[in-house]
Write a structure and sequence with these properties.
- This protein has one domain.
- About 25% of the residues lie in helices and about 30% in strands.
- The chain has three helices and six strands.
- Strands 1-6-5-4-2-3 form a six-stranded antiparallel beta sheet.
- A hairpin with a 2-residue loop joins strand 5 (about 55-60) and strand 6 (about 65-75).
């Protein structure tokens, strides 16, 4: 079951990192916003949450800071209360 949310992987309510399911490239929202429109078009349909691989979408506009939102899986560690993105990344770095 998917959980639709935009829980933060850096701060309050919005995802600021996602990955490409095409090649595993991890993007910050700022980096992704800086891509050429054609590069964004190809990649934006293939974005996923760093933790659960739930489908992610890129959001940006004239009055909106670039960010991602995701449809997280029920067991996603980024939306589970005791977990934060920093803790997830620390665990991933240790090979846990």
């Amino acid at each position: 079951m998917a959980v639709r949310t935009s829980v933060s992987n850096t701060r309050g309510g919005t995802l600021y990192m996602a990955k490409s399911i095409l090649d595993g490239t991890e993007w910050t929202a700022t980096e992704f916003a800086g891509l050429l429109p054609e590069e964004q078009r190809v990649t934006r349909q293939e974005l996923a949450c760093l933790s659960c691989d739930g489908r992610a979408v890129f959001r940006a506009g004239q009055q909106r800071q670039p960010s991602f939102a995701a449809r997280h899986r029920q067991d996603c560690r980024l939306v589970s209360r005791p977990w934060s993105a920093f803790r997830f990344l620390a665990e991933a770095g240790r090979g846990a």
